[in-house]
C-alpha cells in the first residue's frame, strides 16, 4: 500500500520537495555575491531604523589548510582563540604576523524583538581581502576586495528569541590577479610578505561589523546629493532610490535658521528633485558649514522611513592652472597617510584618528589623500566637520598591468567594483573634492620601479582599460575631479584622461640620493614639461625622505631629521615658484609598517614627519612654520 502510494505520488512529492528546498535559505557553499549599491547608506539609528555594533572580542581560528568549510566550522568553532574586532590579526597574535591565509571569526548575538517587522542586514566594514559569511550555519554571502564595506540581508537566516551565531571566514592570500596585487614577478628587490605595495598587508576584520534594521514595507536605499550654487542661492540636486513601491516622499534641508521642505514622487522606486537654499552657507576649509538633509518615505500620509545625512554645498572645478573650490583657487597642503598604528594594525583606532586630525591642523595642513584605500567612514565625517579637503582613493595601489588576459580582466573588474563601492559609500561628503582611481599604475612590479616598455597596441589597450575607470567615476559622480597618481618614470599618456596631473616623486631620495637640491631641480624641470604638454593644474601627491627619529647631523645627510627638512624644503620651493602647482602632499604623515625588505629598516617606512606613535620630527615643526605662515598670508 505504502509502496503504491509512494509511486503514484512520487512526482507530486518531487515537486513539493523542490519547492520546499528552493524556498529555504541557501546552504553552505551557496553564497550570494555582495552588491556595491547595498552599502550606499551606512546604518543609523532613528525612530525607523536601528543598529547594533558587534565589535568586541570574537572567537578566532586559523585555517592554514583551508579545511574549515569541509569540516563545517560554520556550525561552531572549537579550540578557538580570542581576537579583537576591529583589528588586524597580524598584530594581535605572536605567531601570525606574516600569516596571509584563512582565518575564521565567530560571535553570538540576539536580535532585538523590536526588529521583528523589519528587514535585517549585516554590514562588514572591512574584511581584508575576501570574506564569506554564515549565520546559524547557513551560507549568506561573499565579498572580495579590501577596505570597502559589504552588506547582506539576513531575514531568512536568523533566530528570534535565541542567540544567533555569526561566522565570517576571512582570507588574505596575496595574488597577482588581485587589486592590490601580491606575489608578482619582476620586483628588483624582494620583500616579505610579497605585496606589490609599500605597506604591510594587514589582514582580518579591520573595521566594525554591524547589524541594522530598516522598515520592511519600504526603505530608502540610496540618497545622492549633488550641490551647486549661484550667487547667494545654493542648490541640492537630490536623487533617491527606495526598496519597496511607495509613491510619495519628502526632502527636508535644515541648517542656519532655515528649514526647506520639498515633496517628491517616485517612479519605479526612484525620485529626484532640486532644492533651492536661499542665503546659502557654503562649505569650505574656513567655514565647514553642513546642512542636515532628511529624506522621508510615506504611506497614506504616515512616515514609514526616514534617513538624515549631513552634507554641504560647495563646488569643485579646474582651470589650466588651478583647482577651484566654490569658484576660487585653493592650494592643497597636506599629506598622504595610512590607517596604521601599533597593535591595531589597520584596525579602526578612533583616538588615533582624532589625534591625526589635531596634528594635521597643528601643521597647518588643509587636506590629505586616503592613500592607498578608502578609510573608515569616520574619517570623512571628521573631515567634513573640520574643513579638511580629501582626495578619496580606491585600493588600486600599484595597479599592475602585466599578466595574462584572465588576470587583467579580473583586475579590471575589481577596479570598477572599487570605484562603485567608494563612490556609493562616500559621495555625500563635501570634504571629498577628488576621486583617485589608481596610485602608480604600472606594468612592472612597483618595487622594481616602472618603465613602460610596451608595444603601441598594448599601450593603447591599457589606456582603454584605464579610460573605463575614469568614465565610470565620472558617470557616477560628474561633480568631482577625477585623477590617478603617476609613478616616477611611468607612462605620461594617461594624464590626457585626468582633471589634474598628480605625480609621486622621490628625486633626491631614490635617485640623486642625498642631493635634495638636484632633486628639487629635476622635479621642477619635469613638472614644467608636464604642465606645458597637458595644460592642467599639477600636484605632487608624494615626496619625502626616510628619516630615523633622533638621527641628526650638522650637515644634512640621508636618514637624518635635517635631510628630511632639506628635502621637503626643496620640493615646497619648487611649488612656490610655479603658479600651476596646486597642491603638495608630503609622504608620509607618520611612519608606518611595511613588509620586510632591505630598504625598509625594521619593516618600516620612515618617511613620516611624525613617528608611528605621533611624535613630531623636525620636519613636522618645519611644515607648521611654513604652512601656518602661508595660511596667514592668504
Ligand atoms: C610611493 C608609493 C608609496 C610608498 C612610497 C615610498 O610612490 O606610492 O606607497 O610608500 O612611494 O616611500 O617609497
TrEMBL record:
PROSITE patterns: GLYCOSYL_HYDROL_F2_1 (PS00719). This is Beta-glucuronidase. It is an enzyme of class 3 (hydrolase). Its EC number is 3.2.1.31. Residues 1-28 form the signal peptide. Keywords: Glycosidase, Hydrolase, Signal. GO terms for molecular function: beta-glucuronidase activity; carbohydrate binding. Residues 316-629 form the Glycoside hydrolase family 2 catalytic domain. One of its GO terms (biological process) is carbohydrate metabolic process.
Amino acid at each position: 500500500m505504502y509502496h503504491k502510494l509512494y509511486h503514484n505520488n512520487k512526482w507530486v512529492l518531487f515537486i513539493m520537495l523542490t519547492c520546499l528546498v528552493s524556498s529555504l535559505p541557501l546552504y553552505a557553499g551557496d553564497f550570494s555575491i555582495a552588491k556595491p549599491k547595498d552599502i550606499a547608506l551606512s546604518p543609523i539609528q532613528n525612530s525607523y531604523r536601528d543598529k547594533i555594533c558587534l565589535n568586541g572580542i570574537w572567537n578566532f581560528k586559523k585555517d592554514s589548510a583551508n579545511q574549515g568549510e569541509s569540516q563545517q566550522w560554520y556550525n561552531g568553532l572549537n579550540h578557538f582563540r580570542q581576537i579583537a574586532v576591529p583589528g588586524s590579526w597580524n598584530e594581535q597574535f605572536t605567531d601570525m604576523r606574516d600569516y596571509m591565509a584563512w582565518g575564521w571569526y565567530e560571535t553570538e548575538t540576539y536580535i532585538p524583538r523590536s526588529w521583528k517587522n523589519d528587514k535585517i542586514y549585516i554590514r562588514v566594514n572591512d574584511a581584508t581581502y575576501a570574506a564569506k559569511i554564515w549565520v546559524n550555519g547557513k551560507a549568506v554571502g561573499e565579498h572580495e576586495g579590501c577596505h570597502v564595506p559589504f552588506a547582506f540581508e539576513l531575514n531568512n537566516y536568523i533566530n528570534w528569541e535565541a542567540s544567533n551565531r555569526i561566522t565570517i571566514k576571512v582570507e588574505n592570500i596575496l595574488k597577482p590577479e588581485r587589486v592590490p596585487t601580491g606575489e608578482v614577478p619582476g620586483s628588483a628587490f624582494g620583500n616579505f610578505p610579497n605585496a606589490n605595495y609599500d605597506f604591510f598587508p594587514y589582514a582580518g576584520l579591520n573595521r566594525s561589523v554591524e547589524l541594522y534594521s530598516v522598515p520592511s514595507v519600504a526603505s530608502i536605499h540610496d540618497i545622492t546629493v549633488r550641490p551647486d550654487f549661484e550667487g547667494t542661492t545654493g542648490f541640492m540636486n537630490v536623487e533617491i532610490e527606495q526598496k519597496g513601491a511607495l509613491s510619495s516622499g519628502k526632502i527636508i534641508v535644515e541648517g542656519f535658521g532655515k528649514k526647506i521642505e520639498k515633496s517628491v514622487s517616485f517612479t519605479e522606486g526612484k525620485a529626484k528633485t532640486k532644492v533651492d537654499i536661499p542665503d546659502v552657507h557654503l562649505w569650505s576649509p574656513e567655514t565647514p558649514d553642513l546642512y542636515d538633509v532628511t529624506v522621508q518615505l510615506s504611506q497614506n500620509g504616515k512616515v514609514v522611513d526616514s534617513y538624515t545625512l549631513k552634507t554641504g554645498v560647495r563646488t569643485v572645478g579646474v582651470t589650466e592652472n588651478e583647482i577651484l573650490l566654490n569658484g576660487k583657487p585653493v592650494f592643497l597642503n597636506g599629506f598622504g597617510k595610512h590607517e596604521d598604528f601599533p597593535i591595531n594594525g589597520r584596525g579602526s583606532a578612533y583616538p588615533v584618528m582624532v589625534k591625526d586630525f589635531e596634528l594635521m591642523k597643528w601643521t597647518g595642513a588643509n587636506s590629505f589623500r586616503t592613500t592607498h584605500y578608502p578609510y573608515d567612514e569616520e574619517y570623512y565625517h571628521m573631515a567634513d566637520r573640520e574643513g579638511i579637503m580629501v582626495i578619496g582613493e580606491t585600493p588600486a595601489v600599484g595597479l599592475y598591468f602585466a599578466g595574462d588576459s584572465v588576470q587583467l580582466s579580473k583586475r579590471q573588474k575589481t577596479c570598477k567594483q572599487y570605484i562603485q563601492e567608494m563612490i556609493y559609500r562616500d559621495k555625500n561628503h563635501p570634504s571629498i573634492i577628488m576621486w583617485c582611481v589608481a596610485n602608480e599604475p604600472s606594468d612592472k612590479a612597483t618595487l622594481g620601479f616602472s618603465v613602460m616598455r610596451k608595444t603601441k597596441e598594448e599601450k593603447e589597450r591599457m589606456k582603454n582599460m584605464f579610460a573605463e575607470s575614469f568614465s565610470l567615476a565620472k558617470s557616477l559622480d560628474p561633480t568631482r575631479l577625477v585623477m590617478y597618481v603617476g609613478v616616477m618614470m611611468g607612462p605620461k599618456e594617461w594624464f590626457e584622461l585626468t582633471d589634474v596631473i598628480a605625480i609621486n616623486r622621490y628625486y633626491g631620495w631614490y635617485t640623486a640620493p642625498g642631493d635634495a637640491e638636484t632633486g628639487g631641480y629635476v622635479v621642477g624641470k619635469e613638472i614644467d614639461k608636464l604642465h606645458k604638454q597637458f595644460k592642467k593644474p599639477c600636484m605632487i601627491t608624494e615626496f619625502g625622505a626616510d628619516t630615523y627619529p633622533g638621527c641628526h647631523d650638522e650637515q644634512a645627510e640621508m636618514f637624518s631629521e635635517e635631510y628630511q627638512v632639506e628635502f621637503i624644503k626643496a620640493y615646497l620651493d619648487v611649488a612656490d615658484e610655479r603658479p600651476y602647482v596646486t597642491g603638495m602632499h608630503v609622504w608620509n604623515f607618520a611612519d608606518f609598517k611595511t613588509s620586510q625588505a632591505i630598504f625598509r629598516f625594521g619593516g618600516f617606512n620612515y618617511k613620516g614627519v611624525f613617528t608611528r606613535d605621533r611624535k613630531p620630527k623636525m620636519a613636522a615643526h618645519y611644515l607648521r612654520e611654513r604652512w601656518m605662515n602661508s595660511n596667514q598670508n592668504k
